[in-house]
Amino acid sequence: MADTNVAEDETSNASQEQHETVDEMLARHRQEIKQLQNKETELKKAAAKGSKAEQKAKKKQVEEDVSKLSTKLKEKQLKELASQGFSSSSSSSNISKDETNEKKGDIDTLVRAIAGVSVTTAQQEHSKPSKSVKRREKRAKEEADREQRIKEEQSNVTSDRMVENQKLEKKLKPLGLTVSEIKPDGHCLYRAVENQLASLSGGASPYTYQKLREMAAAYMREHKTDFIPFFLSETESESESAEERFEKYCSEVESTAAWGGQLELGALTHCLRKHIMVFSGSFPDVEMGKEYKSGNGSSLMLSYHRHAFGLGEHYNSVVVVNNMTG
For the CA atoms of 252, 257, 260, 266, what is the dihedral angle to 10 degrees? Predict the structure, then answer.
């Protein structure tokens, strides 16, 4: 947009240049510099929105854009001054001595103003950046680099998710199955089981996801000798005993949105006395509660996603293609 405005100004002024007096040219030059300064102010205001990282990135882009426009304007104005025989320190004999002396200061100021890569005063242009400015610039660069790395990582996550979903679909499709999406709120494992129970009953599930949490926690407490060895392999602490840590874990299972995994699935398969099948596009399929498996289609079917939503692990419900439920 800024380039377009400058181009339009150059076109509109082109026909005037051949008929301008020196006074008119200098006045126009000062007006052009002022317009660019105003444009820079507008762009900086527009860039002062969004997160700090976004603002820094936008500010950097504004500085680059203004630098290009300023350089272009400088070249144009110096060319016009040269066509009149002027430089920053001398004048042409084509202009009277009085007029030259009167306008020399204006020309020196003008040349200095358009000599830099940005629209600033000569003193600002030639002064060395302070340590604080250098630190801010360094932090801005580090933040911009971090944002770029995050974008690249997100791109990789998206790619991994697509590959994982394609493999899972290839596995489920021949079985006449498909994934029913579950809300990724920390309760996904329990919501997926709730969805499966509702599908089997043909109506509402006999247990809510919260009740399933409580059932899993209660079963784990009652059979802690079966679960603590697996639990200890995942946690370490010098200040608490194994039983204290296990009790705290069970409390989180029943009363928070803590993510559920294989321990909780193991508890649920016994609580519900159901065979559970977990399909995955990243790992081999897992069967739990084989002793409860029957031929009447009463198994609970879930899907495990390692790269879901860029959030990491996630569980969905797996249903028959023509029997999708909410």
Answer: 60
Number of domains the chain contains = 2
250: annotated active-site residue: no
**What does pTM read for this prediction?**
0.51
Q: Annotated catalytic, 185?
A: yes
- Boundary of a domain, candidates 111, 127, 143: 127
Active-site choice (188, 271, 275, 307): 188
The upper half-sphere exposure of residue 50, i.e. CA atoms within 13 Å in the direction of its Cβ, equals: 11
**pLDDT per position as a tens digit, 206-240:** 999 999 999 999 999 999 999 988 877 555 655 78
Catalytic residue among 29, 270, 275, 314: 314
Distance CA 43, CA 67 (A): 13
Domain finish residue from 90, 112, 127: 127
Residues 291 and 224 in one domain: yes
Q: What is the tens place of the pLDDT at every residue in 274-312?
A: 999 999 998 899 999 999 998 777 899 999 998 876 556
* 188 tagged catalytic: yes
Instruction: Please state, in angstroms and rounded to a whole number, the distance separating the CA atoms of residues 120 and 98.
Output: 30
Given 126, 185, 223, 285, which residue is catalytic?
185
Q: Residue 221: which residues within 8 A CB-CB, separation 6 or more?
A: 247, 250
Residues 20 and 118 in one domain: yes
Angle between helices 224-232 and 242-255 (to 10 degrees): 100
Q: Are residues 117 and 55 in the same domain?
A: yes
Q: Does 174 reside within a domain? A: yes
The letter for the amino acid at 224 is: K
Structural domain including 250 reads 153-323
Spell 86-118 as b/e; 16+ CB within 10 A means b. Answer: beeeebeeebeeeebeebbeebeebbebbebeb
Residues 89, 174: one domain? no
